[in-house]
Amino acid sequence: MALTQRQAARDGTITEEMERVATREQCPPETVREAIADGRAVIPANHGHDALDPMIVGADFATKVNANIGNSETTSDLATEREKLHAAVHYGADTVMDLGTGADLDEIREDHIARSPVPLGTVPIYEAVKRAGDPTDLSADQLLSVVEKQAEQGVDYMTIHAGILAEHLPLTESRTTGIVSRGGSIVATWMAEHGEQNPLFTVYDEICEIFATHDVTISLGDSLRPGCLADACDEAQYAELDVLGELTRRAWDHGVQVMVEGPGHVPMDRIADNVERQQRVCDGAPFYVLGPLVTDVAPGYDHITSAIGAAIAAQEGAAMLCYVTPKEHLGLPDRADVRDGLAAYRIAAHAGDVATGRPGARDWDDALSEARYAFDWSEQFALALDPDRAREFHDQTLPGDNYTDARFCSMCGVEFCSMRIDQDARDGSDIDALTAETDLSASSAAEVNRPPVGTHDGGCELGRGVDAVHPDEVGSADD
């Protein structure tokens, strides 16, 4: 049986996936192996995901971003979900989670695995509920059956809500928004109906055995994450976190890679405490955070409220950020929402890497700043996080090629452009010194801290010996 990345790392073996990751992170392969062996990082890489371009999640590496996609009972089909996958990869998602709860789940999941160059994650309890028909009709055998099937299909990581226990339920009764995790609410309903312990906790060792067979990374779900600022950092959240620490160590004993999911809605001044506590309780396992949202007052703009928290979390050591789109709390995201959510979170991740002094991360910023001062509009667009959006906004007021050489934009105009005024006040030698180019090709930055935003260029050789899938080939569907 093939080893998991953790088992291989602890045996002293550097796998092909570790070699590929080291290239993408611009670091020695041994650095990757040590982080995997210690549990401080994971490479979500199911043995059966042939299209995968391996990547790493860990606080010692560049901050990663996950994009959630998926259909619902009322919205979306295979073509639409394929378009969302295309958009997610094109705009720079490092992983994608299929949270579908509607029709044709198997067909959509298999299509994603066949096409996606990024790791694919799922929440198997959603499909289990669809099979059962009602959350209270779930059984441990059904849960194990769904987990095993998805592992065999090639899913790279799964959210398992095993940390919420029966004794935690009374702790949620005084909450403002109760249990906001879908998986957590399902498990809580089952426990309340049956008067028994969480079945995912009961069969946790069997789940770990399945994951070890296929090298599925476990993402320990935060069933009791706070759904509003009033519930942040309460007894329920931290009681579950203590269990997640125990489950982390149990999974490691099975040779399974682990990352731990986190809040949620948290005030800015409590984010650092949350990251520090998770790292301590879970022995340094990678922290995968949703936001956190730092205010509750902005429906329609929660990609912004959450990106603020995500940037702080990244600075404090969160390893992966789960994006939030403008539709959060309001509706099912479409392709445009995926784009906006990823832009906000790529900014947060990159800002976190700059703040922590990640090698080479700021080179991208410096190169764009030099192009801006030189009025090299074409280079500005090429270096932008979202080149199409930058060009679109510029050309709305100054269209035409003649303006791509202009020493002004429509904000200040010709007479009041501060950089033009500054340049005109300098002599030529000063200008030449200020506009020296940063050589991004020689940068020590990881791939995710280099332009363009998409991390898969289609020209690299993967650790598994297959060609990467170009973002534009993931499978764009007709609108």
TrEMBL record:
<feature type="binding site">
    <location>
        <position position="412"/>
    </location>
    <ligand>
        <name>[4Fe-4S] cluster</name>
    </ligand>
</feature>
<dbReference type="GO" id="GO:0009228">
    <property type="term" value="P:thiamine biosynthetic process"/>
</dbReference>
<feature type="binding site">
    <location>
        <begin position="222"/>
        <end position="225"/>
    </location>
    <ligand>
        <name>substrate</name>
    </ligand>
</feature>
<keyword id="KW-0004">4Fe-4S</keyword>
<dbReference type="GO" id="GO:0009229">
    <property type="term" value="P:thiamine diphosphate biosynthetic process"/>
</dbReference>
<comment type="pathway">
    <text>Cofactor biosynthesis; thiamine diphosphate biosynthesis.</text>
</comment>
<keyword id="KW-0862">Zinc</keyword>
<feature type="binding site">
    <location>
        <position position="161"/>
    </location>
    <ligand>
        <name>substrate</name>
    </ligand>
</feature>
<feature type="region of interest" description="Disordered">
    <location>
        <begin position="441"/>
        <end position="479"/>
    </location>
</feature>
<dbReference type="InterPro" id="IPR038521">
    <property type="entry name" value="ThiC/Bza_core_dom"/>
</dbReference>
<keyword id="KW-0408">Iron</keyword>
<dbReference type="GO" id="GO:0008270">
    <property type="term" value="F:zinc ion binding"/>
</dbReference>
<feature type="binding site">
    <location>
        <begin position="181"/>
        <end position="183"/>
    </location>
    <ligand>
        <name>substrate</name>
    </ligand>
</feature>
<comment type="function">
    <text>Catalyzes the synthesis of the hydroxymethylpyrimidine phosphate (HMP-P) moiety of thiamine from aminoimidazole ribotide (AIR) in a radical S-adenosyl-L-methionine (SAM)-dependent reaction.</text>
</comment>
<keyword id="KW-0479">Metal-binding</keyword>
<protein>
    <recommendedName>
        <fullName>Phosphomethylpyrimidine synthase</fullName>
        <ecNumber>4.1.99.17</ecNumber>
    </recommendedName>
</protein>
<feature type="binding site">
    <location>
        <position position="97"/>
    </location>
    <ligand>
        <name>substrate</name>
    </ligand>
</feature>
<dbReference type="GO" id="GO:0070284">
    <property type="term" value="F:phosphomethylpyrimidine synthase activity"/>
</dbReference>
<keyword id="KW-0456">Lyase</keyword>
<feature type="binding site">
    <location>
        <position position="126"/>
    </location>
    <ligand>
        <name>substrate</name>
    </ligand>
</feature>
<dbReference type="InterPro" id="IPR002817">
    <property type="entry name" value="ThiC/BzaA/B"/>
</dbReference>
<feature type="binding site">
    <location>
        <position position="261"/>
    </location>
    <ligand>
        <name>substrate</name>
    </ligand>
</feature>
<feature type="binding site">
    <location>
        <position position="329"/>
    </location>
    <ligand>
        <name>Zn(2+)</name>
    </ligand>
</feature>
<dbReference type="InterPro" id="IPR037509">
    <property type="entry name" value="ThiC"/>
</dbReference>
<feature type="binding site">
    <location>
        <position position="409"/>
    </location>
    <ligand>
        <name>[4Fe-4S] cluster</name>
    </ligand>
</feature>
<feature type="binding site">
    <location>
        <position position="68"/>
    </location>
    <ligand>
        <name>substrate</name>
    </ligand>
</feature>
<comment type="similarity">
    <text>Belongs to the ThiC family.</text>
</comment>
<dbReference type="GO" id="GO:0051539">
    <property type="term" value="F:4 iron, 4 sulfur cluster binding"/>
</dbReference>
<keyword id="KW-0411">Iron-sulfur</keyword>
<feature type="binding site">
    <location>
        <position position="265"/>
    </location>
    <ligand>
        <name>Zn(2+)</name>
    </ligand>
</feature>
<feature type="binding site">
    <location>
        <position position="417"/>
    </location>
    <ligand>
        <name>[4Fe-4S] cluster</name>
    </ligand>
</feature>
<dbReference type="Pfam" id="PF01964">
    <property type="entry name" value="ThiC_Rad_SAM"/>
</dbReference>
<feature type="binding site">
    <location>
        <position position="288"/>
    </location>
    <ligand>
        <name>substrate</name>
    </ligand>
</feature>
<feature type="region of interest" description="Disordered">
    <location>
        <begin position="1"/>
        <end position="26"/>
    </location>
</feature>
<keyword id="KW-0949">S-adenosyl-L-methionine</keyword>
<keyword id="KW-0784">Thiamine biosynthesis</keyword>
